[in-house]
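Here is a complete protein record:
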Amino acid sequence: MDELLGGHLRTLREAAATGRLPDRTELDDCRAAGARAAEQGLSVRALVEAALVMAESLRTAPLPALRRTVSALMEGYENAQRSALRHEGEARREFVNDLLQGRADRLAERAEHFGLRLAETYVVAVARPAGPMTTGPMTTGPVTTGPVTTGPVTTGPVTTGPAHDRQAEGDGALARRIEEAMVARFGSHNVLIAVRDGMLVCVAPGSLAVATGEFTHHVRQMFSPGWRVGLGRPHRGPGGVVTSYREGANAIEFGDRLGLRAPVLKAADLLVFPVLLRDRAAIEDLVTTVLRSLLEARGGPGPLLDTLEAVFASQGNQAAAARKLGVSTRAVTYRLERIRRLTGFSPDDPTQRFTLETAVLGARLLDWPAHPLA
């Protein structure tokens, strides 16, 4: 400590001998000493106490000079602390960014620094606000588009200017608040928060199931209406984190395509949709074969498709479907009969019902008939 505070002691001796207050160079030396104390892991209390003990040894140390040197020591200490926290946060976010992209460069070694064991099982929750989150203080690079997220999540040009800067700052502050709340409860070694692809991402151990629920709770409280959360399934290892992230993002996309109302969507509940899209040619053939004749209906296929969706969602209860659609039960009955005549498939027949429901799901996923199929 004597070596660390040597400049502080010399400054006080000079002030005691001449009555001169410390100049800028001397105060900068004190700030540097305070920064080194922070880097060495010393507490600010120990630093200030040592500085005061040195002043007592002079007996005639002027109080104004002592106040300035101690203030400079504390300023240097606090600046170093803030810088360390900022760099730590940037390192965490860069690590999460690389982790979600599947970059294998020293992931395991870097994970240990943050207390993570990548060989374990992790689950990823993805939150999308009503509008895409802009890049801000939380992020480590530009928002990028990719095959995982499409549609409203990443569309639109990147804008600049004061309004955009304020929005970016607001998004970054929002993300930081959620990150701070999560870390306060579960510890920084258990959760990682980052902004990616216009969404807020939370990575948590699969054994800590309550973490994703807590994350959703904060999203519900802080995001404007229109938010949606997608929950990936638990997977093991770094590749499992990427898989869980993609599942969560895809769950949001499926919810948008299918018009699902639930704000929280679990990938485990939507496994049929990736299966449907895995063979696009087959699902296109199914939609074309089963539903193309609906294009001949008066008023177009829209009302008939909506009726089928409402009936399927109501487990075949036509009265409940009518309430959802805001029409009479007789109108639903008429539409179902019209569908049977046009397609040859009846929702009342178990086998035909399954074919119809699968075709309707495929139509929503392919955005048919808005986008005609070949």
Notes: Residues 135-169 have pLDDT under 50 and may be disordered. The first helix runs from residue 6 to 18. The chain has three domains: 6-85, 107-270, 274-365.
